[in-house]
Structure formats: C-alpha cells, structure tokens
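note to self: the first set is below, dont mix up w the second
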Amino acid sequence: MVFDLLYVNGDWLNAYPLSDRIERLQQWLPLADPIHLVPTYDNGDALFASVKEKHMEGIVSKKRNSRYGIGGKNGNWRKIKVTEDLIAVVGAVTYRDGRVNALLIGQYNSEHRLVYIGRVGSGSLTSQDWQAVTRLAELLKSPANPFERQPKDVKKVSWLVPQLTVKIEFQEWTENGSLRQPRILAFVDENPDQCILEEGSDEGGNFP
C-alpha cells in the first residue's frame, strides 16, 4: 500500500503540496498486484463515520496543500482514532511518591458484582486533580477488595469503597474483557450502581 511520493528520478518532492505528490504518484506508480495506492477522500467526516460504523481503527487526515516535513512532527496531518467511552467505578488505586498515580476500575455485572476492566493512569487529569483524588482515596480506603476477583499483575494497591465514578475513553474491548488504551476524561457524579457492563463483557479481564 503506497500513499505518498517523496523522491523520483533524482528529484526530491517534499516541497511540493500533497495534492501534487499524489498526482505524480498516480502517474508513476505501476498499479498492479501487489502494489496498491491508498485511496483518498475529500469528505473526512463521512469517511470517519463509515470507519466507526465498521469498527475500524481510525483515519489519517492531511491538508491537501501541505508540504512533507522531514525530521519532525507538524500539524499538517493527524491520526484520528475511533474511540468509545463509558462510566466506571474506581475500586482501587496505586501510589507513586505518596500520590495516587493510577485507578483500578470496574463495572457491575448482571449479578451486581464489580468486575475489573482495567488500570488507567493517563488522560486529562491535572496535577491538582491527582492531589484531589489522593485526598478522596484516603477517605475511601477499605480493607476489602471490592472486585469480584483479584486483578492480575497489580501489586501494592489500596482498595476503596466503590463510590467514585469516572468517565473513561478507550479504543476497544480486548478479548479477555478489559479496556484497550484507556484514558481518564473526568470524574463524574454518577450512581455507581448504574455502571453496568455491556452485554458480552461479564467476565472482565486480567485475572490469574
């Protein structure tokens, strides 16, 4: 799969607009198996909607008049991933240097048992947000594991009374019932009992 042309017949084309490079690529590329030209689309919104409907990973968006920048990133192209979001319950936290640095999250299954769905430490929270989470975690500490089963490969956690709820963005569900590439969007005022696993995810993930 070929999507750009930077050098041909001794000439560098990186200073040419993307539209010109694609036109030259169409002229020079022998379009026959196994070589294929990546198709381009003018309506990015429609393409993204189609990709999302088909549960594909995402699209790459580029400015048609952009030059090719060598040696670094620029704002002329972006990878736009398809993501989902959900509300989860915080059942435990981990610490680093005396401050919470990650959340262990879950949702309730049909038997109202909290099922572990992943560990998340990245996202939109500021340093002040993490400090606030640390204070809340101290108030909600519990000796009991609130999850139905023991999360795997997670050590030195502090269990919490499952009252905090958080909005999570993620790429997809994995085969073992956990979230792929989860990110924290925000803490939300949601009834923890309403954080229900979607159908087909009752087993949760990351267990021994």
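second set (the one i keep forgetting abt)
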Amino acid sequence: MMEIFNWLNNALLAISDPFLSWLLNLPRDVALVIIAVATSFIMTIVRKWSTNQDLLKRCDDDKKRLKVLIKTAKENKDKEAIKRYRSSLGMIGGKCMMAEFKPLIWVIIPIAILGTWAFNRMGFFAPKAGENIQITGYFPVADCGDLVFLMPEEGIEVVSSEKDSKLTEPSSWIKEIKLQELTKEQKEARLKPDGVANWNIKAKAADKPYKLKIRHNDKTYEMDYLVGEKKYSMNFNVFSDTEMVPSAEIKLREYKPFDIVPGIESMMCPPWLVGYMIIAVLMVFVMKPALKIH
C-alpha cells in the first residue's frame, strides 16, 4: 500500500513541480494565497460549465421565497404552513445537493495535483546549509535499550544541540533507543509511546539529496535529506507496510500561515492545510456572487 501511495505521490509531483516550483521563490504566505485562490477559481469556474445554472438560479430564488413564507407563517403561528414550506425547502436542498456532485468529478484531478504539490512543498521550511536539524527514529518499545546507528555521510556531521536539553549523550552517530516522552496533546489523544533515538545533525548544501541510513538489528532504513534548496525531502518516512514503526522523522521548521493560524492536531490537520482551507472556502463564497454563479 505504501509503495502505491509513494508512486502516486511522486507521479503527481512530477506533473506539478515544473509548473508550480516558482511559487517557492515567493514569501510562503503569498504562495499559499495563490494556491488557495487558484483552487477556488477552478472549483467556481468548473461549477459554471458543469451544472444547470438556470435550475440552480430558480432553486436559489425558491429558497429565498420559502424563507420569507416561513417567517410570515411563524408570525401567524400557522404550524401546517411552516411544515409544508420546510418540506419544500428540504426537497429543493436535496436537488441542489445532487447538482454538487458533477463539479466535484471534474475538479478532482486538478485539485489532486494542486493538493499533492502543496502537501509536499508548503508544510515546512527547507533546511539551510549548516542549520541544526533533529532526526528522530521510532522503534517498537521492545527495542528500548538497543543501540541504533546513523551511518556517517560525507557533508553531514552530528552535533550537540542547546535546544534539546534531553540529549545527554555526547555527539555520536550511535544512540540508545529510549522510551518516548509524550507531549500533553499526545497523552490526551491516548497515544502509546514508541522507542525513540535522536540525532542532531547539520549538513552542507548539496544539489542532490543526502541518503540518511539508520542501521538497527542488521537492517538498514534509508531516506532522502535535501539541504540548501527551496524544496525539502519527505519529512516522515515509514519503513513498514503494516506498522507505523520503524519510521523516521526529519524535524523541519513548520510553516504557520501568517504566524497565527494553528493546526488541528486531533484531526491531523497541519497549520498550512487549515490556512489553505480557510482561504479557499472564503474565496469560493466571494467568487460565486461576483461571477454570478449559482
């Protein structure tokens, strides 16, 4: 399953990168607004050409009229009329709902391309040359106490980090797997801890991704690490088709739209996605009346 997902992800990136990579030269907030507005524009324009606009206009007019009639019936305390009008309103709503499916079919491919690109390029800031970045390996709890080895790579060095006071081991490629300390949010979500090993590394800029190789129990887990470019490598890699461990995370600096939009951890929505959805939905509501689309 993971192989299929990775293949599809890479295929959509191969299509989108040549057309969208220029956005990475802009401030991240500007790039997010452009992607969100483009999404709204596609959804709005496709709606115009894929739905019966005359029917939807009449439905909108009928709904407005029925709401006025319901208000009048409430003032007159006419329960039978209220019931009748609400039933008609529900029937019209159902007809409108059916009309929503056709535009969704048409936009699924362009939105999938935009969404995949944003998912891979917008969530984090790419690591700079010489920037300290933490690499965390996740393992089964039963492996706590084992030694795990990040294989040396030319251009990369392991360093101690003042930011991570929990790293008491000296700078070393070899680390001991320890029981993960869960955050307050993780405890509230009733997540179970894994075994973890942390490395703090810094690397020189390179045209091609480094190959980070984690060695444990005669197995080698490999992932890309791109440094000094506008793009970043996939920051979370799962090395099993059936379990979430073993896995490894490159802890990049997360992008928070306009420095205020938070993520929704309980729904697994990162900050960029929340900001993207807010802008896209608002722009749909702005564009529809502006372009006289129902």
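remember for set 2: Residues 79-121 form the longest helix (43 residues).
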